[in-house]
Each structure stands twice: as structure tokens, then as C-alpha cells.
Design goal:
mainly alpha, globular
């Protein structure tokens, strides 16, 4: 992961998923988890982007 991806994963989790995977299931899950709480969204983004 690049530094930009890490910073975006912390600040704007759905944007980081969108830049790597585009529009899809991962983005929808990321948006939902971020709306529930910031931390679940961040954890999911790091999980998805590390695959």
C-alpha cells in the first residue's frame, strides 16, 4: 500500500476503497460500515486493501 492509500484509508475509508476497487460490493460495505462508525470502516478498508 502506498502512503496516499494509507492516509485515505484513515481519513476517508470509502474513497480509498473506490480508488482501488471501483464501484462494487466492497464500496457499499465500506460506506455502510463507515456510517455505523468510523473505526469499523477503517478496519474493513485495511482488510480489503491488503488482499
Amino acid at each position: 500500500m502506498s502512503i496516499l492509500t494509507i492516509v485515505l484509508s484513515i481519513l476517508l475509508p470509502p474513497l480509498a476503497v473506490f480508488l482501488k476497487h471501483g464501484v462494487g460490493t466492497e464500496l457499499l460495505i465500506s460506506i455502510l460500515l463507515t456510517l455505523i462508525g468510523w473505526l469499523p470502516g477503517v478496519i474493513y478498508v485495511f482488510y480489503v486493501n491488503s488482499k
